[in-house]
Each structure stands twice: as C-alpha cells, then as structure tokens.
Amino acid sequence: MGQLDWKRGRFDLTYETTDQEDALRGRIDEVGDYFDYYRFDAANSTIDPVYDEAVGQGKVYKGPFRWPAWHVTHLNGVNENGQEGFYFNDSLHVTASVSELASLGLTDEDVNTGGYLLDRIVYPPDKKQSKVYRITNIQIVGQVQERHVIIGIDCTQVKPDELGDDLAFQKWSVQGGGN
C-alpha cells in the first residue's frame, strides 16, 4: 500500500497503473467484447476540400484493428421527424484501455485535437448485423494521477447509403447489401 508522506515504496505510479491494466485485461478475457477500428489514412486518401466527399480513389483506411473493450453499449436509434421525413441513427459507446491507442496509430494529440473524427468502428465484428459507426468523441474517463488508463469512445451510425464512396466499407453499403 502506498504511503501518504514523502517516503517512497515499491508501489509507485508505474507499478499501480500497470497492475490495474493487467487486472482489466484479465476482465476483458473473461467477459469483455471486441470491435474493429479503422484508422483514416489522410496521406493516401483523395477527398474534396470543400464538400469532404470522396474523389478519385476516395477515403482510404488502415485496418481493421481488433480492439478489446471492457464494455460496449449499443443503443437503437429512435425515429426523428426532420424536413426529409423520419430518420434514425444507432449510437455506440465503448469503454476501453488507453494502452491500445498506440497500436492504432492514435496519439494524445489526436485525442486532444479531434484527429480521430474520420476514423470508423465496425461493431459487432464478424457478424451479419455489423454496422459502421463514425466516431464523434473520444475522451479520457479514467486516470491515475496524470497517467491515462481508461478511454471512452462515442459513435453514431453511418447509414449504408452514406458508405458508397468508402471502399473499405463496401460490404456495409447499399450496393453491398448493408442493412
């Protein structure tokens, strides 16, 4: 157990957070979940600078990267009456380990500046009912002192008719029979 005074024992910040990550990894192995993360590849993508639509080869993604999650919450969207008629979007919230970020190519700077906004998640992976989600928010939801441990990811569904220009997601598009 750590001490409250100036003396240092073997239970320092690195020891404590590593021990927590090991315990949480064990929980994932027992009752956790997985999702596929696709990282937007800006260097190899061709998109219109004004309309953010694919031109040429379109949007290119690295992945999928299988990411273990402690918990994934899927919420079915409710019908909303807009000018174009009824429309609904499913939502997804993921709670996962920060230690996986580096393997995806995400940095603290990406999280702080929104460098993930063109990334995509497919959940549940390898299932007929899989859906593609756009990431709307990533935030640190758990930390020990200033070392990040747990991350929260909020997403909204990308409809099959919106995936036509994204080659990585053709099987989920209208042309690919997406639902």
Q: Which structural traits does this protein have?
A:
179 residues, alpha+beta, 6-stranded antiparallel beta barrel, 8 strands
Describe the fold and architecture.
It contains three helices and eight strands, in the order αβββββααβββ. A hairpin with a 7-residue loop joins strand 6 (120-123) and strand 7. It is 16% helix and 36% strand. It is α+β, with helices and mostly antiparallel strands and 179 residues long. The protein has helices at 13-31, 101-104, 108-113; strands at 33-40, 61-75, 80-82, 85-87, 91-97, 120-123, 131-144, 147-157. The strands form two sheets. Strands 1-2-5-8-7-6 form a six-stranded antiparallel β-barrel. Strands 3-4 form a two-stranded antiparallel ribbon. The longest helix is centred in the N-terminal third of the chain and has 19 residues, at 13-31. The mean pLDDT is 81.
Topology:
Elements: H1 13-31, E1 33-40, E2 61-75, E3 80-82, E4 85-87, E5 91-97, H2 101-104, H3 108-113, E6 120-123, E7 131-144, E8 147-157
Antiparallel strand pairs: 1-2, 1-6, 2-5, 3-4, 5-8, 6-7, 7-8
Summarize the structure.
This protein has 179 residues and is an alpha+beta fold. The protein has three helices and eight strands. The strands form two sheets. The protein has a six-stranded antiparallel β-barrel with strand order 1-2-5-8-7-6. A two-stranded antiparallel sheet has the order 3-4.
